[in-house]
Design a protein that fits this description.
Elements lengths: L5 E3 L18 H14 L3 E4 L1 E2 L5 E2 L2 H14 L3 E4 L9 H6 L7 E5 L3 E3 L2 E3 L3 H14 L2 E6 L2 H14 L8 E6 L9 H10 L5 E6 L4 H10 L3 E4 L6 E3 L2 E2 L3 H14 L7 H8 L10
Parallel strand pairs: 1-2, 1-12, 2-5, 5-6, 6-9, 9-10, 10-11, 11-12
Antiparallel strand pairs: 3-4, 7-8, 13-14
The structure holds (5S)-5-amino-3-OXO-hexanoic acid (KMH) and zinc ion.
Length: 279
């Protein structure tokens, strides 16, 4: 039976702890979240970290500590965000790889991001991609728009396969400025993906449910979490990340593609085994 890989994106860089008290922002909160989400069916965690004031940071010492803590406390594939917040510069974003995660995000183009701009120039994409190959880190290509899918194909044509050989993508849908979180947009993007690519999808805000069911229908994997949605239903806040993972796991099970275990996800994505290696 085919299985569904569930990625949890628990924090992001956009919501504030003051507005969303359930957001995991400390290392303890993140570790507890990782464990609860693994128990609920997640196989991978997409991590953004916060500083002592709960503000987004790419501090390398904190990133290393986070990788070690989550790796020690769970079996989840540890993916660090190289997107950071819209205010982070390219140099800091490249240095994320020094924390030696299993995987990292790699966004395939610049996109309007609400009132801001999320910058991902072609030279930055190339530099980050080559660094993932050199460091043996599996990139997850973040695709916010159809043009990003085209850019991904160009990247692979020019610079070859990613570390491990498996191309894995995540469609991030419904960002104001990116592609809409609709079944039609999802199908267009999936049709343009490189042959043999695996992919997940996540719908931001209100598009979370349409994207989840469209992704399952189209044979994709799922990403859920409070990075992308903080409202459970109209007027009801999300309780915690595990609640979102539980819902995704239920939906996947209903589709007869139940959650994939982390070890199977490691095999699928060809992740280098760094467990047991001190950070
Ligand atoms: N926070 C967004 C500006 C990623 O993690 O790589 C970028 C983002 C994508 O979340
Ligand atoms: Zn992210």
């Amino acid at each position: 039976m085919a299985h569904t890989m569930i990625t949890v994106a628990p924090t992001g860089a956009e919501s504030s702890k003051a507005d969303v008290p359930a957001l995991p922002v400390t290392l303890d909160e993140l570790v507890t979240t990782a464990q609860a989400c693994e128990a609920a069916g997640a196989a991978m965690i997409h991590i953004h970290i916060r500083d002592g004031d709960a503000q987004p940071t790419l501090d390398l010492g904190r990133l290393k500590e986070t990788v070690a803590a989550v790796r020690g406390a769970s079996n989840l594939i540890v993916q660090l965000s190289t997107g950071g917040s819209v205010h982070d510069g390219y140099d800091l974003r490249l240095r994320v790889l020094d924390a030696e995660p299993d995987s990292c995000s790699l966004t395939c183009g610049t996109v309007n991001f609400g009132d801001d701009v999320f910058m991902n120039s072609w030279p930055f994409m190339v530099e980050l991609y080559q660094l993932t190959q050199e460091r043996q880190i599996v990139p997850e290509f973040e695709l916010f728009d159809l043009g990003h899918v085209h850019a991904l194909n160009r990247l692979l044509d020019k610079y070859g396969a990613p570390f491990g050989g498996q191309v894995h993508c995540d469609l991030v849908m419904g960002v104001p400025g990116g592609m809409p979180g609709t079944a039609a947009a999802l199908v267009s993007a999936v049709e343009a993906l490189p042959e043999g690519a695996t992919w997940s999808a996540t719908g931001v805000g209100r598009s979370t449910m349409p994207v989840m069911f469209a992704a399952l229908s189209a044979g994709g994997h799922l990403r859920v979490g409070m990075e992308d949605v903080v409202t459970w239903a109209r007027g009801v806040a999300v309780r915690d990340n595990a609640q979102l993972v539980e819902r995704a796991a239920q939906a996947a099970t209903l589709f007869q593609r139940p959650p994939m275990m982390p070890d199977d996800a490691r095999t699928l994505l060809k992740v280098k085994d760094r467990r047991g290696v001190p950070a």
